[in-house]
Design a protein that fits this description.
Elements (H helix, E strand, L loop, with lengths): L4 H10 L4 H30 L1 H13 L23 E2 L4 E3 L7 E8 L16 E9 L2 E8 L3 H9 L12 H16 L15 E5 L2 E5 L6 E5 L5 E8 L44 E2 L6 E6 L7 E6 L5 E7 L11 E3 L3 E6 L2 E3 L12 E3 L5 E7 L9 E5 L4 E9 L6 E9 L7 E5 L37 E2 L6 E2 L27 H6 L9 H20 L22 E9 L4 E6 L11 E6 L11 E9 L2 E9 L8 E6 L7 E2 L4 E4 L11 E9 L4 E8 L5 E6 L10 E5 H6 L9 E3 L3
Antiparallel strand pairs: 1-5, 2-35, 3-4, 3-36, 4-5, 6-7, 7-8, 8-9, 9-37, 10-11, 11-12, 12-13, 14-15, 15-18, 16-17, 18-19, 20-21, 21-25, 22-26, 23-24, 25-26, 27-28, 28-29, 29-30, 31-33, 32-33, 33-34, 34-35
Helix pairs in contact: 1-2, 3-5
């Protein structure tokens, strides 16, 4: 150690005029030798007390104020189940169809720890609930998906990863800061994955994958009792050098090319980090097509293909014209991949304006649809189509027109702020920055169509509420720049939180055939009367799912089935609303669309949708014949209520009957879990897909919380779902 200041000063005086210089040099030497020691000491202290530092930031800053809000997604049957169970010999009412043998699985959020702060339905840890059907007997099992995120939180002893529900207002910045500190301190490793694998499931390449759009898939194994076991987190290798698809590969080899639409379209030389929760499997080729979107950095969108053996054989980067946006689903035909670029943009600056949310809906920006040929080697040939602003979370089906070359049909659930039967049209463009639909210079009223209500270009309701089957979002209008009001709370407007009155119950008690306009008119009038009576009495208001606990306005949109047509030859696109939600089970929202999987990517006749009646709860299912005129296409609807007791369910999965391809399209069954409030119990409901009549009901002897998407594995697939040592997918085992 150097001399102290006093000792150095004395020695300097003894040496005469050199004293000031000696003091100066002594101080410098002291600092040079002392600072590293101080840094090392500080580093040691931070390392030793890093957990305490993170806890102080969280509980003294981030969660310093008690959360007085009632979180609807943690109440009732949205509440998580606290344990894993295996239950055999389940009671069955009716008869399990002889051809229905396999494993029914449904994924969904189920937080392992009690959430801290705000919470959204999409934040929960993934849990798979399965029912094994074999020989007329049934058993039930549920298991958490052991993601890297969940394993890290288990080691820590509490929730440590940020949640979507917390990314609002200035508190959202504290959430981001908290996670950044934990990463720097080595308490959290997001490189191993931060997703919950809670959204959907897919079977491909003899593997069962659990999916979440913010992470890579997790590989699951099925045990003999129907329970799933987490094996590993899959990491798809980069495509071989000859298969990497370059950005507009130029013959000259000079630099990167430019797409015909004016945007760059380029090579994917990076590993896959995000993977859609809705990949599409082509049964004919065995390929699995997927995309990933990145809100933080370019490329914001990447399209990929995995062959039937699990090889990652194609990867194409696609630049987005207005930056990153939420992209939950896409569609696939035998010729095209269809990407849905809805005007729900990621704008983190909005979050700091008070109580804003980083995703902002821009009603003056069109919905854009990008069609890219499946045989493309880069994104230079991508074709963009514009239509009035809307939002799509899930597609039902898509196919190439068998008679008119160049035409592509897509059916999807979209925002319903358009009149029934209106045919909206616009001219597509190969340049994303072209005039927007509804704006000067852009044709938006061809073929008698119009741009939304009151001539607006597809603007959502004033409240900016997007329900969505995954919990909904109460979003600010980015165009209005009103950051002080209408905070994002993932709330459900009060007009949707209502009790079904006695007339509704009697009208919706059993399966019905309903395709007459007069019936629809009477139902609509009855619903309006019911809604008015509920809203007029404060004592009748229910707030089942309101995250913030605030009273919401009646403004907002809903979802129903739309038909989209893209003409790649003429460059025009049209969309048409096919039915009002009130036509089915008095619903306010129709979502979770399903078709017979044997008819994926080819013309189909029937689409089945869940009927959302009360917040995010579904009370029935509707069968729509899309070959019939709009407003006259509901051929059957059924409610889950039984013996006067309310029941609520979720997505109704279509399971085709075993047999030849010549079987009728609606030959099969619909499977879903339903919850009965009166008995606090859950059932597996099996409906005939032709008539929607109940075939069988399996009592599960436990409560199954509401969830998201389902999958059915037949006996052959159940046997195939096992570990493969010679897998072509490189695996990162959770630590």
């Amino acid at each position: 150690w150097p001399l102290s200041g006093e000792e150095g000063l004395c020695e300097g005086r003894a040496r005469g005029s050199d004293a000031p210089a000696m003091v100066h040099h002594g101080v410098i030497i002291g600092l040079c030798l002392g600072i590293p020691a101080l840094i090392a000491l500080l580093f040691a202290l931070v390392t030793a007390f890093r957990k305490q530092i993170a806890d102080w930031i969280d509980f003294k800053v981030l969660y310093s104020k008690p959360n007085k809000e009632t979180i609807g997604f943690l109440r009732g049957n949205f509440a998580p189940t606290p344990k894993e169970e295996t239950i055999g010999d389940l009671p069955v009412k009716g008869e399990i169809p002889q051809g229905l043998s396999g494993l029914f699985l449904r994924n969904g959020p189920n937080p392992y720890f009690q959430p801290l702060g705000r919470y959204h339905w999409f934040d929960g840890d993934g849990m798979v609930h399965g029912v094994r059907l074999k020989g007329g007997k049934c058993s039930y099992a549920n298991r958490w998906i052991e993601t890297s995120r969940l394993r890290q939180e288990k080691r820590y002893g509490r929730p440590v990863f940020m949640k979507i529900g917390e990314l609002t207002g200035k508190e959202g910045l504290l959430t981001l800061l908290s996670q950044a500190v934990k990463c720097k301190l080595g308490l959290v490793d997001i490189s191993k994955g931060a997703g919950q694998a809670n959204t959907a499931l897919v079977y491909h390449g003899r593997k069962l994958l659990a999916l979440h759009e913010g992470d890579l898939p997790y590989v699951l194994q099925v045990l003999c009792n129907g329970a799933v076991e987490t094996l590993m987190r899959a990491a798809y290798d980069e495509p071989p050098a000859g298969e990497k698809k370059g950005r507009g590969a130029e013959p000259s080899g000079e630099g990167q090319g430019e797409a015909k639409d004016g945007s760059s379209a380029g090579a994917s030389s990076h590993p896959v980090t995000t993977f859609t929760a809705h990949p599409k499997v082509d049964a004919a080729t065995g390929e699995m097509h997927f995309f990933g979107y990145n809100i933080r950095s370019k490329p914001h969108l990447t399209y990929g293909v995995v062959d039937r053996e699990g090889n990652h054989v194609k990867s194409i980067d696609i630049d987005l014209p207005a930056g990153p946006a939420m992209m939950h689903d896409f569609a696939l035909t035998k010729t095209y991949a269809i990407f849905l670029y809805m005007p729900l943009f990621f704008k983190p600056k909005e979050m700091v304006g008070g109580s804003g949310f980083p995703f902002v809906f821009e009603p003056d920006f069109p919905s854009k649809f990008a069609l890219l040929r499946r045989d493309a080697t880069d994104a230079s040939g991508i074709q963009w189509f514009d239509l009035p602003a809307g939002m799509i979370f899930h597609t039902a089906n898509a196919w190439d027109d068998p008679k008119e070359e160049g035409k592509v049909h897509m059916y999807a659930c979209s925002t319903a702020d358009y009149s029934l039967g209106d045919l909206l049209s616009s001219t597509s463009t190969r340049y994303p920055g072209s005039p927007q639909v509804g704006m000067p210079g852009s044709p938006s009223q061809d073929q008698g169509g119009r741009s939304g209500k009151n001539g607006k270009s597809g603007t959502l309701g004033g409240g900016g509420f997007i329900p969505g089957a995954h919990g909904g979002m109460s979003l600010m209008n980015g165009t209005a720049h009103d950051l002080s009001g209408n905070p994002a709370s993932f709330a459900v407007p009060n007009r949707y939180l209502r009790s079904m009155n006695e007339s509704s119950k009697s009208r919706l008690h059993s399966s019905t055939l309903n395709s007459k306009a007069s019936s629809f008119a009477s139902r609509l009038a009855s619903r309006k009367s019911s809604k008015s009576s509920v809203n007029s009495s404060p004592s009748q208001k229910k707030d089942l799912l309101n995250l913030s606990g605030e009273e919401r306005s009646a403004d907002g949109d809903t979802f129903t089935l739309f038909h989209f047509v893209f003409d790649t030859t003429t460059g025009t696109a049209t969309q048409q609303k096919l039915l009002e939600p009130e036509q089915a089970c008095d619903a306010y929202l129709l979502e979770f669309p399903q078709v017979n999987p044997r008819f994926h990517m080819r013309p189909c006749q029937f689409v089945y949708m869940a009927c959302f009646c009360d917040g995010m709860k579904t009370n029935g299912v509707v069968k729509v014949d899309i070959t019939r005129p709009a407003g006259e296409n509901v051929v059957a609807s059924a409610t889950f209520a039984k013996d006067g007791k309310k029941r609520f369910g979720g997505e109704c999965l279509f399971v085709p009957a075993e047999g030849e391809e010549a079987l009728a399209e609606d030959e099969g069954w619909l499977l879903t879990y339903v919850f009965e409030h009166a008995t606090n119990s859950s059932f597996l409901l099996i409906l005939d897909a032709k008539t929607l009549e109940e075939v069988a009901e399996v009592e599960l002897k436990t409560r199954v919380p509401y969830g998201f998407h389902s999958l059915f594995l037949n006996e052959e697939q159940v046997q195939n779902v096992k570990v493969q040592s010679e897998s072509h997918v490189s695996i990162t085992v959770n630590e």
